[in-house]
Amino acid sequence: MGCCHYYAFTDGGDVAFNVDMSAMTFGSGCLAEAGDQARALGMKRVALFTDKGVARFPHVETVAKSLRAAGCDVAVYDEVKVEPTDGSFQAATGFAAEGKFDGYVSVGGGSVIDTCKAANLYATYPADFLAYVNAPLGEARPVPGPLKPHIACPTTCGTGAECTGIAVFDYLALKVKTGIAHRRIRPTLALIDPTTSYTLPKNVVAASGFDVLSHALESYTAIPYTMRARPERPSLRPMSQGANPWSDIGCRKALELTGQYIQRAVSDAGDHEARDNMMYAAALAGIAFGNAGVHVPHGMSYAVAGLVKSFNPEGYPKAEPLVPHGMSVIVNSPAVFRHLADACPERHLEGARWLGADVRGAVEADAGEVLATHLIKLMQVTGMPNGVGGVGYGSSDLDALAEGTFAQQRLIRNSPKAMTVESLKQLFAGAMAYW
Ligand SMILES: [Fe+2]
């Protein structure tokens, strides 16, 4: 692989890449397989995680019924917080520790799946909360051994959380989003039933769809794995290992599907072909970014979501201000790709073409503008906010946004260009409004 241009070997750079992924079952109605799959994984006493919003739909009941029919003893935890916090992770851990479960099933969006990962981790290997949390906030201690089996059943077509070893939360004391990242917290099996997306509000489909899009685009344009320093021991190779030939395959297909279907999936809940394909794109992008890692738009999204003032879009819980994850990512993406394109222009042009942009006659110097223009067009036709200004920020917030982003070193280091607080400030200034 060292012969390919983007993956040319470098002095001190890594020479190999990992492929880690959950097993996956994809298809209409497959939630009803949960019981049989759980028993095959040796589960008898099962913690079923969800949130109160998801619990109103029949999916949780479908899964619970299937588990009980297979002879599992099921305890439901529906206290998961949308946009989880250190406190909500710890509350879920309390439930998990007390119940002495031998397996976990999560039904919901990224918040539910991530909370279940964390509860499984801390109940299996108890430790101070910051022990497993990403550095520099936490100790980033490696997970000591395998966790209990976890079947993740996503009900939004976005996060890819069912395929990754990352659990994201808000650390309330510092008002920052951070996470736990280790391959051992990846769910054992992803049970992906696209019919769960048929009841989602359009804004949720749009935000989730842009999360998928940015996972694929960021993974494809991340620093090549050959340019990241070789780890001390192979077992220490990070999951965010940089772009690699295997992740590239999933990125390409996810971008093609997103380009083809996102607008249809948003505008017509009855367009099942579009929603099915967005769900599949989410899984492909999740597998890709789980092995490559995202970079600057996601790094910036943590600050955009964490510092939210009063924004609260249609289709989401109204209890508190909230910038949904996919929105907090995509408002940054056009400005970021405009800036990063000259680091690997051919990859930015390919990304634009796969998303459906007209790249005829475009040369490498046009890559950033062609891609940014197409992203902006997709944002407009799906009703996304007009940049960072559209979710409530102004020029007086640039310092706080840039500093909040710079703290996300795990993501920033995966960028194809080095970033400083000053360059991040300029990116946020360029992301304030696009039209
Ligand atoms: Fe994401």
Quick recap of the structure?
By secondary structure, this protein is an alpha/beta fold. It contains 16 helices and 8 strands.
How is the secondary structure organized here?
Elements: E1 23-26, H1 34-40, E2 45-49, H2 52-55, H3 59-69, E3 73-77, H4 86-99, E4 103-108, H5 110-124, E5 150-154, E6 166-171, E7 176-181, E8 189-192, H6 202-221, H7 245-267, H8 272-292, H9 296-306, H10 325-330, H11 333-340, H12 345-354, H13 367-381, H14 398-406, H15 409-412, H16 421-430
Parallel strand pairs: 1-8, 2-3, 2-4, 4-5, 5-8
Antiparallel strand pairs: 6-7
Helix pairs in contact: 1-3, 4-5, 6-7, 6-8, 7-8, 9-14, 11-13, 12-13, 14-16
CATH homologous superfamily assignment of the largest domain: Dehydroquinate synthase-like - alpha domain
Helix fraction, binned, reads: 40-55%
- Which value, in Å, is the CA radius of gyration? 20 Å
Bound molecules: fe (ii) ion
Spatial ordering of strands, largest sheet: 1-8-5-4-2-3
Overall shape: globular
The end-to-end distance, rounded to whole angstroms, is 42 Å
- Averaging pLDDT over every residue, what do you get? 94
Q: At the third CATH level, what is the topology name of the largest domain? A: Dehydroquinate synthase-like, alpha domain
Total of helices: 16
What share of residues are in beta strands? 5-15%
Question: Largest beta sheet, briefly?
Answer: 6 strands, parallel
- CATH architectural category of the largest domain: Up-down Bundle
CATH class of the largest domain, please? Mainly Alpha
Helical/strand content category = alpha/beta
Count of individual beta strands:
8
Tally of individual domains: 2
Order of helices and strands: EHEHHEHEHEEEEHHHHHHHHHHH
The low-confidence runs, each spanning 5 or more residues with pLDDT under 50, are: none
